[in-house]
Structure formats: structure tokens, C-alpha cells
Amino acid sequence: MTAYLLKRLLIGAATLVVASVVVFLMLEVVPGDPARVMLGMNASEAQVELLRDQMGLNQPLIVRYLDWARGLLSLDFGKSYTYSVPVIDLVKERFVVSFPLAIIALALSTLIAIPIGLFAAARRGRAGDTAAMAVAQIGVAMPNFWFALLLVYVFAVWLRLVPAGGFPGWGAGAWPALKALVLPAVALALPQAAILARVTRAALVEVLGEDYIRTARAKGMPMRAVMWRHALRNALIPVLTIMGLQFAFLLAGTIIIENVFYLPGLGRLVFQAITQRDLIVVESVVMLLVAAVIVVNLLVDLSYALVDPRLRTRQ
Description:
Blueprint: H1 2-28, H2 34-39, H3 45-55, H4 61-73, H5 87-122, H6 127-141, H7 144-158, H8 174-207, H9 211-218, H10 223-234, H11 236-252, H12 255-260, H13 266-275, H14 279-307, H15 310-314
Helix pairs in contact: 1-14, 5-6, 5-8, 5-11, 6-8, 7-8, 8-11, 11-14, 13-14
Protein name: Peptide/nickel transport system permease protein
Family: Belongs to the binding-protein-dependent transport system permease family.
Organism: Aminobacter niigataensis
């Protein structure tokens, strides 16, 4: 288990280093002057030169990268040109919106998808399986921004059960804050639940053909117990893989949903920074999101060893 853990940690660290180089090169070594891009074409040469000096653009490339990497390790991401505040303060302010939203959406997705996958696999080839997978296919094909607008019209405009957008902040109380996240979480969760349900069903169908499943059934074990106690656990590895990828997407890829619901999250922060040409914010937040994805994938890899003990001795 120790060797498995060390190997995964080394792979995660190496991936993080490579990702930092890629992000730095993509945003730093691009055609044109980053300072000119941020200030616009009407800025004077003196203003551009001052910003270049503040951003360290006059230093060699390797020095700029090492300074930036050291800043990331110490959580010193520099100062936003647009907001005139440290980038880390912007991240803290937006993270408390995006992270709970991703957690709620992932929980909803899992609670919906696993039972549907079990239901469809237990009725493989029958009407229930066909209906469940047809609904899941519709969910996969449905654009989440269109579904979000539909939810706003039904539950906020027509029924007036929840707010149509905005976020009151956690200082206003847990219930008002959670209430503002309900529709965005549902809009994110249902399309992801459709994907997860199809993966769960496929993994379970494969496992149900194994000899130990037939033995359990031959001994008289009820199908419900076989599905929950034997089949599901042995089908969890592909399911956990998709859940890890989905959480990374929910945390880093919510730009559209956060803009539909006017949520002050990380996705909207990146969108605003791009439109305002605040490259310091874009660079730092993108790298943080990349690091979050790598950490989530590392946790998923470690969960494999908990689900399947054989992996502890193979790696």
C-alpha cells in the first residue's frame, strides 16, 4: 500500500509540474505583449512599461516562471490588475460558492445515477432497462445551459419557489445560501447523473456475468442483495473514475451555469478576468483549478485501492 501511495503521489506531483509549465507558457509566451493586451491599444508606452516592470515581464523567461511557481507554493498569486486586490482574496471569496455547488451537484448526481444504474442492470434487456437508458440518453444530449434556463422559468418565475439567480452570501444564513444553489446544482447534476447512470449500468452488466454472481444466485441470495453487496462494489472502479472526472468538471467547468444564475464563483471569475484581460487572475485561477483536478484524480486513484485490495499489491 505504501508503494502504491508513493507512486501515485509522485505521478501527481510530476503532473502538477508539467501542468504549471504548460499554463505558464500558454499565458505568458503568446503573440503580443501581455502588458499591452491588459492595458489595451490606447495605453501609452510609459504605462505599458510600468506594468511590464510590475509583472516582471522584463526578466528572463525562466526567472519569471520560477518566481511565479514560488508564488503558487506560498499562495502569493500577485495582485489583480482589474480589482486591485490580491488574487488569493478573490479566490477565497469565489471558492466558497463554487466548492459547495460542486459538492451538492455531485451528491445529487450520485444519488440519482446509482439507483438508476442498478435498476437498469437488474432488468437488462427488458422494458425498464430500455426506458431508463432512453431517459439517460436524453439527459446526456440536453445542454445544461438550456436546462438551467428551463429550471429558472419553472421554479423561479412560474412557481416562485427559489430565487432566479444571485447569491446572498453565507453571512445571510445557511438556508438562504443553499436555496440560491439549489437550481444551479440541479442544472449541473442531472446531465452528469445521466452519464454516470449509463456507466454504472454498463459496469454492473459486466460484473453480473461473473461466476461468483451466479454462485450467489444459485445459493438463493435475493437479487437485491446480490446487486448491492456483491455486484456494485466490484463495479465501482469505473464509476469512481467518472465521479472523479465529474467533480473536477463541476468545480472547474461551471462558467456557463454560474453566468446563467449570476453566481460569484470561480468559473465566473475566470470568465470576467478573460473579458477584462486580467491575465494575472486567469493564470493563477487556471493553475489552481488544474491543481484541484490533479488532487481529485489522486484521491480517486487512492480510492481504487480501498475498493479493490488487489491493487495494493499490484502497484
